[in-house]
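Appendix B, record 7
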Amino acid sequence: MTGQTSSTETPRRIVVAGGGPAAHRFADAMHARGLEGWQVTVLTEEAHLPYDRVALSKALTDSTVDLTLGAASMWDHEAITLKTGERVVKIDAAAKAVETAAGNRYEYDELVVATGSDAARLPIPGAEHVHVYRTLEDVWAINKSIAELTDKLGRKINAVTIGGGLLGLESAAGTEQLGAKPVVINGAPWLMNTQLDEGAGQALGRLIEAKGFEVHGGVFPSEILADDDGQVTGVLMADGRTIAADLVVVAIGVRPRDELFRAAEGEEPLFDLGPRGGVVINDDCSTQVPGIWAIGEVANFGGMCLGLVAPANTMAEIVADRLHGGEATFPGFDTATKLKLSGVDVASFGDAFAKTEHALEIVYADPARGVYQKIVTTDDAKTLLGGIFVGDAAPYTSLRPLLGRELPAEPGAYLTAAGGGEAPETELPDDATLCSCNNVTAGSIRDAINGCGACDGNAPVQELAELKGCTRAGTQCGSCVPMLKKLLETELTKSGVEVSKALCEHIELSRQELFDAIRVLELTSFEEIMAKYGTGAGCDICKPTIANILASQNSAYVLDAGRGTLQDTNDRALANMQKDGTYSVVPRIAGGEITPKKLGVIAAVAEKYGLYTKITGGQRIDMFGARLEQLPEIWKELVDAGFESGQAYGKSLRTVKSCVGSTWCRFGVQDSVAMAIQLELRYRGLRSPHKLKMGVSGCARECAEARGKDVGVIATADGWNLYVGGNGGATPAHAQLLAKDLDDETLIKYIDRYFMYYIRTADRLQRTARWQEELDGGIKHVEDVVVHDTLGIAEELEAAMAKHVDTYVDEWADTLTDPERLRRFRSFVNAPDQKDDSITFVPDERGQMRPATAEEKGKVLIGASIPMRPRDENEV
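Structure tokens (predicted):
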């Protein structure tokens, strides 16, 4: 261990070889700990101040952007010297000095090597004609070449990126933003194969192909073709194909720049090198030679060198700590990755490939939508080991800090794409790492927010930008910013400070404010709403929210007038997508009551189309395994028999569960079946912030489990007791009593008011239980509004519900009358009569059918076998 010097001694000289992010972080860490007794000299071969390589894609599309790391004023400190254009070429360990390419010599007491890595090159003919993606000069050259070639050729150029990893996809996305046609060549069978398993990689491939990217996987390039003037014309593949190209970028990985540690010919090596390069370091980041340290991509720890910002920052902090007398050690590599390209979210962290013994994988896949979510836990489904998210990475921000900890809810509750709404609320413990790039804990962030000494002056922090500057959290890769913002809002709310309720980055209004604005101004289209209240083209938060608001205020067909493209996959198909790409068919069976004749129709349809059938928890019959093109055929038979859509796919009323009631049961005191049917037929099709479930029990024995529903009705000898705000799921809640001994008319009047008040004021994807909890006054406030009409809006709420009831039309009956609407229900856009034969079923052990497993399909993942993609509703 090297101790700190005293102020009376000659300053100890630290030389840093390299000027990238790791070098900057080391200098910053030394500056933060105090530079008294030290003299730090940073030697960088580039002409720039250290800059953020993570954000290179910004410089690719905007050559004027400033990526400089930190405050430039740090380099003005008298104890820190930054020398640009100085490339270290030799270490003289015996003399404790380094030499640069310019012939200068710098003596040191401690040497920190942070030379990083070089872009890997292709050892194939024509490789001299390609660009690489590593430095500012590299991306500026790509930007300039695309502009010049586009102007010269007079058309959109073909920009081929070789490499389907993180850098490759960033490069390809950048070329697309610059107006080129993006083409990706990837030697591995699927994209980002280092971070993603096959299901996730295939989902990512479908998503970016839907964005207009051309992807060639599983084949390597063998030659870069060019004309006599050196202009690239194509890429010859190992299988003989030629892919047209006007520009080629190679982003196939990096190689540690470890030449300083390699012994000259005939010399005895001083340093141990990893089998794939990089100097071997100890857990204190020291090399085998005392006084020489290595950090960042050049450092090999545990047999690995990784080009990720988090471990580089950690190494830099460790060396600074050691030089100041500390005992910090390197815990190993944090391989968490989050990427957003062309609007596609990707995240991977922890044991993403479930290599831990007995690891359990909980997976949700939606092949048509390109969504894949996987959580890896211990075999008891309690401790989080890792995860992968593609297409919808919203749970990543909540889960990443919980790595290695017991989950506060069932793992499936975090698979938000499966229709469960937002991930469960998570109160992070103080020692949980929220920002892995800068190793910032939740406790440190709380200290900064509450003014407990984290920042100078001990003043509380109330703005996100200020919080980032104070704690460093969210200042590099940015993936923790949503969680950082959430923590800031939570702590401010606890302190009584009002926080923004903006719906998303495009709309500053809350959902409630937006709902009221649309209602008052009678806006009817997404375009009108965005023109008045939004910016940009919208996102996966505001689009479905606006579609939901429009549907709850107008009973027009939900997919008409451009609203189809706003909806989620299930709403677009008017059916629930299953894991193999098929759909379920759920006709409405109000109150669970059905005639033998209608039972026969369901049996005949299930038999005819080979569907798996199951009685649901809501007393309906669910039929699984329908192909997209079969849905209209199936529903025609059901509609003709008197059935209508059960809307199991929508954020709307699902079911009204009932017991048999007084008609048959000797304990029943009211006709629960009749009431359940009346309620279901009244509220069917009612669009809301989240799904709605109801229950009606004919006596206090509660066989319909009414208190586990959003609205529960329990019979008494004097009428009905009304309960509100219950739900099951990952965070169950018992409904609370709102009113007692109601007659039929009053019961329905109160439910009308309750539902419409919830629809108008709840947040997006917020269940009634959580909504009630967050209302100021809780159930008492609900009682004041619904029962006592303290806001004076009861009549208005009742009128809004009456309008819904009067204008309700069954969506599937409506669909079947319009040939244009039926065009959506095709597996293949360009081959309307072709069926998707890749979907495979096998008999199960109980005599029904089920989706074939990967092994049963010859090791081909289901997610890879369904060539679907989301379609624009106007696409033909």
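Remarks on this record: The first strand starts at residue 12 and ends at 17. The radius of gyration is 31 Å.
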